[in-house]
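Possible regression after last week's pipeline update?

I re-ran a chain I had predicted before the update to compare outputs. Posting the input and the new output here so someone can diff against the archived version. Not blocking, just want to make sure nothing changed silently.
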Amino acid sequence: IRKISSTIELQVADIQLLVSIKKEKNMKPILKLYIKAFLIMGLMYASLMAITGYIDGESFSIFKFLFHAIFFGGTMSLTLVSIYKSNLNDKGITNPSEENLKSVQQTEFISKVSRDEFISRLSKDKVMSRMKLKTNEGTLKLNSGVTWKSWGETIAIKISSASEGMFKYQIQSKPKLPITIIDFGKNLENILMIKKLVKNAD
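New output (post-update):
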């Protein structure tokens, strides 16, 4: 009987594990971002406060650590991710995917717009013309300045020949600050702006 009971308990535990894994896979990307931001920001702040307290001669308190982590992490997660979600809604993205929520955004497409034509378009665009442009043989690099949304972004645009009269665009936009978790959709915005610029040129 004990063996049977033990076997049943193991099977129940396996089922619960499978259910939890399935739930995690089905979890909405935006909810995952809320949790990720909560954990990272909360633990970073709580750790900083614990180190500061230790330097000041205070003894470590697990309750104080948890309070700082939960309070700060919860507040920042709810505030920042909600603003992020609102920004995406303004762009028409009401149900963001994991790709939409990544701070590093990239895409590729084919266009008849040549490299020289594209650079000309950049210089005439109100937003893109403000960015610093660096060129080399195959890649264009744009650097944006600091805004309330980010510490700036680096945009790499590789343009190569795809076929006669057609060009392949490979674009990547990423934050200048590597540890960025929430970019408020700024890098996605950069990608969409460039695609629109090329499409208008077509």
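Follow-up from reviewer: compared with the archived run. The helical segments are 2-26, 29-55, 62-90, 115-124, 186-201. Marking as no regression found.
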